[in-house]
Specification:
The protein is an alpha/beta fold. The protein has a domain of about 210 residues: HAD superfamily/HAD-like (Rossmann fold, 3-Layer(aba) Sandwich). It is built from 14 helices and eight strands. Strands 1, 2, 3, 4, 5, 6, 7 and 8 form an eight-stranded mixed β-sheet that branches. Strand 6 and strand 7 form a beta hairpin. The longest helix is centred in the first third of the chain and has 15 residues. The termini are far apart.
């Protein structure tokens, strides 16, 4: 027998026994996830061809921390502060006044319309390349107020393992987020291994034009083109992917329709809901939270067959022990 083949044969039992989800606590939930993946990747009644192994993930609160406010909202707030000298009226104009007063509670309670107003004011009037550069520079330096770590270090280690495990088993993994598509695309590949073309999110209107230098560019207009949240998520999936997923993971009522669309299809399906119930290692919130509210989905999860993932009980670790991206 050839040496390489012999070595492979000797290592095979060890590789087969390797735990693909080491940060997930052993139990019924972990067993069900691995059992689902085994079923759809093993020839038999539940086998799913690789091209149809589509898995979709919300981002905020599902792949990384979303409290005390959404990370993109923190970015928008920093942009408000940078632009405020040119807009003196913002000091008394909601929601800009809340930003300038550092009132995070007021921002969290301001609602979806206020967030869109901030985005329209701070994310536009730039080319797509200029905006991507701003995001990249900000995400490399901004730190979370509680954990004093970069936001890209506050991704969930168990979810990084799940993404890697699925890809190793022939799945294609997508982000489907209510957050801005252009806010996520500059960094998702380095952090999650998810390339820009597999990121679906809310979109600002873009217009093609020729700049003063004679070069073409895409300019960001102060208009919302598409909101990828709630009922918008299945629409975004259909437009962008063209296939119904077989696995969906979310954490809030904003992900309800995505999970419902995914798990109501034919054949084997899996829906997971991350439940934030760990105030010591992260946060505890669900029904009464202005950010990441989990209410109707929590009530309906059992009847829909969605598995609830307890951060406290099912995850041995929440965040990576070391920075996920180089400093």
């Amino acid at each position: 027998m050839r040496p390489r083949l012999l070595l492979a044969c000797l290592l095979l039992p060890t590789l087969a026994l390797a735990d693909p989800l080491p940060s997930w606590r052993a139990g019924a939930l972990k067993t069900s996830i691995i059992g689902f993946v085994d079923a759809v990747t093993t020839p038999g009644a539940d086998f799913v061809p690789a091209e149809a192994r589509i898995a979709v993930f919300d981002n905020d609160g599902t792949l990384w921390v979303e409290q005390p406010v959404y990370t993109q909202l923190v970015f928008a707030a920093d942009r408000v502060r940078a632009l405020a000298p040119s807009h003196p009226q913002w000091s008394t104009q909601p929601p800009f006044d809340a930003v300038l007063a550092d009132d995070l509670d007021a921002l969290a309670e301001a609602g979806h319309h206020a967030i869109l107003e901030l985005v329209a004011a701070t994310h536009t009037g730039l080319s797509s390349a200029e905006f991507a550069a701003l995001v990249s520079a900000w995400i490399a330096e901004a730190h979370h107020p509680r954990f004093d770590r970069r936001y890209t270090d506050l991704v969930y280690q168990p979810m990084l393992e799940l993404l890697a495990y699925l890809r190793a088993e022939g799945f294609k993994t997508f982000i489907v987020s209510g957050g801005g598509i252009d806010f996520m695309r500059p960094w998702t590949e380095a952090v999650y291994g998810i390339p820009p073309e597999q990121v679906i999110g809310s979109q600002i209107e873009l217009v093609y034009e020729i700049g003063d230098n004679g070069q073409p560019r895409l300019m960001r207009r102060p208009e919302i083109g598409f909101v990828d949240d709630k009922a918008g998520k299945p629409v975004g999936i259909a437009r962008h992917i063209g296939r119904r997923p077989i696995l969906a993971v979310g954490n809030s009522d904003g992900d309800y329709q995505m999970l419902d669309w995914t798990t109501s299809g034919d054949g084997p399906r899996l829906g997971l809901l991350i439940h934030h119930d760990d105030p010591e290692r992260e946060y505890a919130y669900d029904r009464d939270s202005a950010i990441g509210r989990l209410d109707q989905a929590l009530d309906d999860a059992e009847g829909k067959g969605w598995r609830l993932v307890s951060m406290r009980e099912d995850w041995l670790r929440v965040f990576p022990a070391a920075p996920s991206t180089p400093r």
